[in-house]
Amino acid sequence: MVLRSIRYGEADRILHLYSRERGRIGAIAKGARRVKSRLGGRLEPLARVNLILREGRGDLCTVTGVDTVDAHPGLRERWTSLQRATQACESVLRLLDSAEPNPPAYNLLCRELQLLDGDADAATRAHALAFRMKLLLAAGFAPELAACAACGEREHLSAFSASAGGVVCPGCEAGSFALSGEAHEFLVMALAKPLAEAPEATERALGQADRAIGETLEHHAHVQLRRVA
Questions:
Q1: pLDDT profile of the chain (229 residues), mean per 10
Q2: What is the pLDDT of residue 41?
Q3: Three-state SS at 128
Q4: For a disulfide at 138, which of 67, 73, 77, 104, Cβ 3.0-4.6 Å?
Q5: How crowded is residue 186: how many other Cβ atoms within 10 Å of its Cβ?
Q6: Can you give the C-alpha Rg of the chain in angstroms?
Q7: Whole-prediction pTM value?
Q8: What is the domain count for the chain?
Q9: Looking at 32-162, which runs of residues are DSSP E strands?
Q10: Which residues contact 141 (CB under 8 A, 6 or more apart)?
Q11: Domain, as residue range, for 178
Q12: Are 136 and 142 in contact (CB under 8 A)?
């Protein structure tokens, strides 16, 4: 999956890629910006491709061949879908910077772009937050939601603490923020339901869920992502 493409030199492109077998890959596509290049438009961000790469002495592989698996043309025609797809790729780019493979994360990203490509109704704030929750799980940073992250209490879980690692009870709520029952339920169902069946919630609950996800990323993964609007 092409996460990002950056102009380099007079005609080249630097690519940030995410693959099923090798995780993050950096590559250079030499001459890709020339009019007659056979690489050209096949290496646009959000495209799923099969690549032939040549490894050299540096950190970047060289692209020597490319076939398009899915260019996702549908999502490129709708601004909101394009924005959501770009957010998804940025999340993977920032959170998963290792060359270690993570098939669940790769499959999740592929599924997200497939849904956004085929269904304009998938480009909602709730859907985008459900994707981020599942990405947290795939990356090993999912918060505790079933019991107080500090003491294990299973009742009266009305606050969220990133430092504690998830929801907390009144006795352990120092440094936390209030989390409504609806927001808590949204976070639980975002993990439990398939991505195509992402739960809905009020804007207030989604705002709290967004904050919980963002603070978890900042505290445990040391990553800051733009909040989902």
A1: 94 95 94 83 92 88 94 95 97 92 97 96 96 97 97 96 97 94 98 96 98 97 93
A2: 78
A3: helix
A4: 104
A5: 26
A6: 19
A7: 0.94
A8: 2
A9: 48-54, 61-70, 159-161
A10: 216, 217, 220, 221
A11: 141-229
A12: yes
Taking the alpha carbons of 37, 41, 42, 44 in that order, is the dihedral positive or negative?
A: positive
- 99 inside domain: no
> Of 72, 90, 123, which residue constitutes the final position of a domain?
72
Examine residue 104 and state whether it is found in any structural domain, yes or no: no
β-strands 23-29, 61-70 pairing: parallel
In this structure, is residue 107 part of a structural domain?
no
CA distance 200 to 1: 28
State the first-to-last Cα distance of the chain, in angstroms, to the nearest integer.
24
Q: What is the DSSP letter of 31?
A: T
User: Domain of 63: which CATH number?
Assistant: 2.40.50.140
CA distance 85 to 116: 7
